[in-house]
Specification:
Elements (H helix, E strand, L loop, with lengths): L4 H20 L6 H5 L4 E6 L6 H10 L3 E7 L3 H9 L7 H7 L2 E4 L6 H10 L3 E4 L7 H14 L3 E3 L7 H12 L21 H5 L5 H4 L2 H11 L6
Parallel strand pairs: 1-2, 1-3, 3-4, 4-5
Helix pairs in contact: 6-7, 8-11
């Protein structure tokens, strides 16, 4: 552990809270200056996931982050992101240079790459689903706790104002006695992607339906039976 790691962890927590508030207020570009913190060094392990492109663009443009580079899975991805001005690194170089590692690989590699980052003592933003098996995710949580690292899973609706308002109305009784919820999420998945998702138990329900299942559990708690 480097001498400044403890102080950096405290600052990061303060920073992320400020960043979230500023982003909701539409003032994301002013976060680093107003919080009085240096940019946080961030790198990517994997670029194959569908959200990688936008996350990369945001980090490249934000004064709150210093994007040190990325490890892409294929030569094609390396060429694509190098053309966007991203420094192409090895896995070891990403782990050495970044304080926060963003895992944006194919789903099957989410947990193994997150484990590499946590074992290297890095904070991790992990794309969802975080693992193929629940015990693999439990192992990641243990690593994060033991190393006092932050592990954030990319569930976009955890901080969605509309869903949070519904959750509060249910808890407060503002919607009365809610006994049923109907949730849908749609995706026009290209035909050549269907084999990829078919490798998971549940297919698209596993990859995409996790969003709505997560919301339902937040609203009503863990199910007694399925």
């Amino acid at each position: 552990m480097k001498p400044d790691d403890t102080a950096l962890t405290v600052s990061r927590r303060q920073f992320l809270g400020t960043a979230a508030a500023m982003a909701l207020a539409g003032r994301g570009e002013a976060v680093a200056v107003e919080a009085g913190l240096r940019p946080i060094r961030v790198g990517f392990l994997g670029l194959a996931y569908s959200h990688a492109s936008e996350k990369c663009r945001i980090l490249q443009q934000s004064p709150a982050w210093e994007l040190v580079g990325a490890w892409p899975e294929t030569p094609a991805l390396a060429r694509e992101y190098a053309d966007r001005g991203l420094r192409i690194l090895t896995q070891s170089e990403v782990l050495e240079r970044a304080e926060v590692v963003v895992v944006e690989s194919e789903v099957a590699q989410h947990a193994p790459l997150a484990r590499l980052a946590l074992e290297a003592g890095r904070h991790v933003h992990l794309e969802k689903p975080p693992s193929l098996r629940l015990d693999d995710f439990d192992a990641l949580l243990r690593l994060a706790r033991e190393g006092k690292r932050l592990l954030q899973v990319g569930y976009m609706w955890r901080h969605h104002p509309g869903l949070n308002a519904v959750q509060e109305l249910i808890r407060s009784g503002g919607l009365g006695d809610v006994f049923q919820v109907r949730i849908a999420i749609d995706n026009q998945l290209a035909a050549d992607r269907r084999k990829e998702w078919a490798q998971f138990p549940g297919g698209v329900l596993f990859e995409l339906g996790s969003h709505v299942i997560d919301a339902a559990v937040r609203f009503f708690g863990r199910p007694e039976r399925v």
